[in-house]
Design goal:
Blueprint lengths: L1 E6 L13 E5 L4 E4 L5 H5 L10 E3 L5 H16 L10 E5 L4 H5 L7 E5 L6 E3 L2 E7 L7 E6 L4 E4 L7 H7 L4 E5 L7 H4 L6 H11 L4 E4 L7 H9 L5 E3 L5 E3 L1
Parallel strand pairs: 3-4, 4-5, 5-6, 10-11, 11-12, 12-13
Antiparallel strand pairs: 1-2, 1-14, 2-3, 7-8, 8-9, 9-10
Bound molecules: zinc ion (ZN).
Zinc ion binds next to loops.
Length: 244
C-alpha cells in the first residue's frame, strides 16, 4: 500500500501548500482520504481526477473537506471530458447534519455514514473506524490491504480510541497541531507533537509520520519534540509517496 501526501497544513495552507489530503492506493484500489483546500490541484500533478471514485472524510471541518464541494462539480463535466469522475461516493460522519447536507449533489454523489464498529470494504482495502475526541464528530481509522496497515488519526486530543486505531500499525499518520508550549490550544481537540509520539509509542507502531501542521511552526521544532519520545518519526512531505 502506498500513501501520497497531497496536503498537510491546517487550518489553512502555507503559500504553495495545501490542507489535509492523502491518496492511498494499492495496485487495484485508490481512495482519497480528506479533501482540504488545495488538494484537487495537487492531486492532478499525479493523476487525473477520474481516478477518484471514493472519498473518506474523517470529519467535516472545512480544512479537511472544502475541496470536495468543487470535486462534486467535476461529475457534471464527465460527459464532456471522460477523464473526470462521473459519480462519487463520500464517507463522512453523521454530524453535523447541516454540513453533511452540503456534500450531496444531484444523483452524482452518494453520501455514506462512517461509524465505530462498521468496517467498509473498498476494493482490496478494509477500513475500520474509531470515534475520537474533537469538537466535530471525527474518526481515526485503520486501512488494511491484507499485508500492511496504515493508521490515521483524524483530528483528536489524546484518547484510548486513538491508541486502538494505531495499535501495531506499519505507518501511523498522525496530526500534530501544536508544540507543547501551545498545549492549551491542543486541549480543545488536537495533539502536540509530543503527544502524537506518546500515542505512537503506546500503540507500538513501526513508523510515525506527523501531519496537520500549523503553517507558521518550525518543522524542526516539531520533529525534535516528537523525537524525544519516539523513533522513527518524520514530518510528512507534500508530494511524497510513502510505502506503508
Ligand atoms: Zn478539525
Amino acid at each position: 500500500m502506498k500513501l501520497r501526501v497531497l496536503g498537510k497544513y491546517s487550518p489553512f495552507p502555507r503559500a504553495g501548500g495545501a490542507c489535509p489530503g492523502y491518496w492511498v492506493r494499492t495496485e487495484k484500489t485508490g481512495v482519497l482520504l480528506e479533501c482540504g483546500p488545495g488538494v484537487l490541484s495537487r492531486f492532478q500533478q499525479y493523476e487525473h481526477l477520474g481516478a477518484i471514485s471514493v472519498v473518506i472524510l474523517s470529519h467535516l471541518h472545512a480544512d479537511h473537506s472544502s475541496d470536495f464541494l468543487s470535486l462534486r462539480y467535476a461529475t457534471e463535466s464527465a460527459r464532456r471530458y471522460p477523464a473526470l469522475p462521473a459519480h462519487l461516493t463520500v464517507y463522512a460522519p453523521e454530524q453535523p447534519v447541516d454540513v453533511r447536507e452540503t456534500l450531496k449533489f444531484k444523483d452524482k454523489v452518494t453520501v455514506e455514514t462512517i461509524s465505530s464498529g462498521k468496517d467498509i470494504r473498498i476494493g482490496d482495502l478494509t477500513i475500520t473506524f474509531f470515534e475520537v475526541e474533537h469538537p466535530f464528530q471525527c474518526y481515526a481509522m485503520r486501512i488494511d490491504d491484507g499485508r500492511t496497515v496504515l493508521a490515521y488519526s483524524g483530528d483528536t486530543r489524546p484518547c484510548d480510541a486513538l491508541i486502538c486505531a494505531a495499535r501495531g500499525a506499519h505507518l501511523f499518520l498522525c496530526e500534530s497541531s501544536c508544540l507543547e508550549r501551545d498545549a492549551s490550544f491542543a486541549a480543545t481537540g488536537h495533539l502536540t507533537a509530543r503527544q502524537a509520539a506518546e500515542v505512537a509509542r503506546e500503540a507500538g507502531v513501526q513508523k510515525l509520520l506527523l501531519t496537520h501542521i500549523w503553517p507558521f511552526y518550525s518543522e524542526a521544532e516539531l520533529l525534535a519534540e516528537a523525537s524525544e519520545v519516539f523513533a522513527p518519526v518524520a514530518i510528512a512531505e507534500e508530494g511524497t509517496e510513502y510505502e506503508v
